[in-house]
Write a sequence for this structure.
């Protein structure tokens, strides 16, 4: 038995068929392809053979036989008939042809959105088998995608993350589109509506399948994204998918398929753009995600090229589409697993680094605790001798009253040194107390100008200190002791490092910016150019200018000022310009 496809006579046949089937179906805007077949039965017996047309989703298929000088309609089929079509089978349509000895001519009319990929062939095997090889492979394909869905469902049940959920949605859409596109749904449910299932749901499932790809990639790429363009393009894809679904429901199939073609372009392009603009993404992870997109792109281009090259003479586009049906969820599952593996490996590495840093930090904390304990012990032990020395100096000073010579001056120097040591001890105790969070502010009403004036009056160098007297009273709410410590440290530093015989200006202020009122004070003085401090280091503990090493001091004063300001909810800043330096302490009015 031979089968030949004949190109001649198509135009004449088309006129005849169009006239004969004018009233057989509703008018449609689908494309139409006509195939003229001449079958030669070389045996003396009448044979029964199947004429197969695939894939299933062609909406209308009419088979005509040349008899008595005209084309007569022999059989009808197509997805538009749903479960009512006798010709419907798994993966396509099969028409039983009776072939007498000799030649018979047949005309197959295929009406579809994509009629040029209609593959028409004759099954030369006897019709006794229930399933052909094509149908067996399709059944295996359906079983594989359902098994893949089961695996993804188990994975989602174990780990219910957003990424696993989106992967599950993608995997669930694949068997839906395969069951409808292969016609299996009408084998399982003959009453299924051809319009709603074969047209609307089929289009929607394809649109959602394509949309799930950037939807899943968005979960993996967004943490590394800083551009708004990627987010806007994802929204464009979602809007396009929504418009596709509305078009399918409204019955605008041509528009919906055009939008699906647009989604086929955007679905891999937008994730690739997101990967390209991703920041701080692991290179290995980026390569994995790129590889999946590249593989999917190769398969899609192969399917389109197959449709263009085969023109219905081969089932190659259908085979490639089945590979895509499997590779889309399976490849994404593998990609997600590899991504999780890379993330887990990076997490373990980061965790190891964090553990090492935690151990080092704990060791540093322990060292600091031991140093503080030692410092507390030393300060406690030093304070008792200092108290004895101060008492002895006081007694000696009383006995030297009214005398002239070296002894009173030496006693005064000893007293000054004892006071310096006592101040250093107090600063160390205060710094330790702030670090250990043993000191908490005790807020009360404070007259800031009076507090500053008292410090000026009690200074041994009060003549070098100047304070405007315009503001007699300025009540603020703060801790008076801590506020005094800040001001005393700043005034002491200014007197110590200011240019010789220069004046130190101390002033309080209340002002407002666009949103809030502020209060505080400033301490400013002239300074030698060589003594200008490093603004990046000035508030660090133990920082001292290289030329100030010969002067008394511990390097704790400004560090303590900053810590106290933070404790009180304020801020301190240093403004050093040319030969002048200003320290400003600022608090926001509650």
């Amino acid at each position: 038995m031979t089968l030949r496809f004949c190109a001649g006579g198509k135009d004449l046949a088309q006129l005849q068929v169009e006239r004969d089937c004018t009233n057989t179906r509703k008018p449609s805007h689908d494309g139409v392809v006509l195939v003229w077949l001449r079958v030669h039965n070389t045996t003396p017996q009448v044979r029964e053979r199947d004429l197969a047309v695939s894939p299933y989703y062609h909406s209308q298929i009419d088979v005509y036989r040349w008899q008595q000088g005209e084309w007569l309609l022999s059989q009808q089929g197509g997805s538009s008939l749903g479960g009512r079509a006798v010709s419907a089978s798994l993966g396509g349509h099969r028409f039983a042809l009776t072939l007498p000895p000799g030649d018979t001519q047949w005309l197959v009319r295929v009406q579809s959105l994509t009629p040029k990929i209609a593959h028409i062939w004759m099954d030369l095997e006897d019709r006794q088998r229930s399933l052909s090889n094509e149908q067996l492979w399709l059944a295996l394909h359906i079983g594989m995608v359902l098994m893949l869905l089961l695996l993804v469902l188990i994975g989602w049940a174990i780990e219910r993350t957003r990424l696993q959920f989106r992967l599950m949605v993608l995997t669930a859409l694949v068997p839906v589109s395969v069951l409808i596109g292969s016609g299996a749904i009408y084998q399982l449910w003959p009453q299924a509506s051809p319009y709603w299932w074969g047209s609307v749901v089929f289009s929607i499932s394809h649109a959602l399948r394509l949309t799930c790809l950037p939807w899943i990639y968005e979960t993996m790429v967004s943490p590394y994204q800083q551009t708004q363009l990627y987010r806007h393009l994802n929204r464009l894809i979602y809007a396009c998918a929504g418009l596709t679904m509305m078009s399918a429901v409204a019955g605008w199939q041509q528009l919906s398929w055009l939008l699906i073609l647009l989604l086929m372009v955007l679905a891999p392009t937008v994730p690739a753009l997101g990967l390209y603009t991703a920041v701080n993404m692991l290179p290995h992870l980026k390569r994995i995600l790129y590889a999946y997109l590249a593989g999917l792109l190769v398969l899609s281009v192969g399917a389109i090229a197959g449709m263009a090259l085969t023109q219905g003479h081969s089932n190659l586009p259908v085979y490639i589409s089945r590979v895509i049906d499997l590779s889309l969820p399976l490849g994404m599952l593998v990609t997600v697993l590899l991504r999780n593996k890379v993330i887990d490996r990076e997490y373990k590495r980061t965790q190891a680094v964090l553990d090492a840093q935690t151990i080092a930090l704990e060791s540093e904390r322990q060292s600091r605790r031991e140093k503080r304990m030692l410092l507390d012990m030393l300060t406690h032990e030093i304070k008792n001798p200092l108290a004895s020395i101060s008492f002895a100096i006081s007694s000696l000073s009383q006995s030297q009253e009214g005398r002239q010579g070296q002894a009173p001056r030496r006693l005064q120097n000893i007293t000054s040194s004892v006071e310096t040591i006592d101040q250093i001890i107090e600063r160390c105790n205060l710094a330790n107390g702030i670090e250990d969070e043993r000191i908490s502010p005790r807020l009360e009403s404070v007259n800031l100008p009076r507090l500053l004036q008292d410090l000026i009056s009690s200074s041994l160098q009060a003549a070098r200190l100047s304070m405007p007297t315009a503001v007699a009273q300025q009540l603020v709410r703060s801790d008076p002791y801590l506020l005094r410590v800040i001001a005393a440290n700043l005034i002491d530093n200014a007197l110590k490092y200011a240019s010789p015989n220069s004046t130190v200006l101390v002033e309080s202020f209340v002002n407002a910016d666009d949103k809030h009122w502020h209060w505080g004070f400033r301490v400013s003085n002239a300074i030698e150019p060589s003594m200008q401090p490093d603004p990046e280091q000035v508030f660090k503990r133990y920082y001292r200018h290289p030329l100030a090493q010969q002067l008394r001091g511990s390097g704790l004063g400004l560090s303590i000022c900053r810590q106290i300001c933070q404790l009180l909810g304020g801020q301190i800043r240093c403004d050093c310009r040319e030969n002048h330096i200003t320290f400003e302490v600022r608090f926001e009015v509650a």
Remarks:
- The mean pLDDT is 79.
- The radius of gyration is 45 Å.
- The longest helix spans residues 316-399.
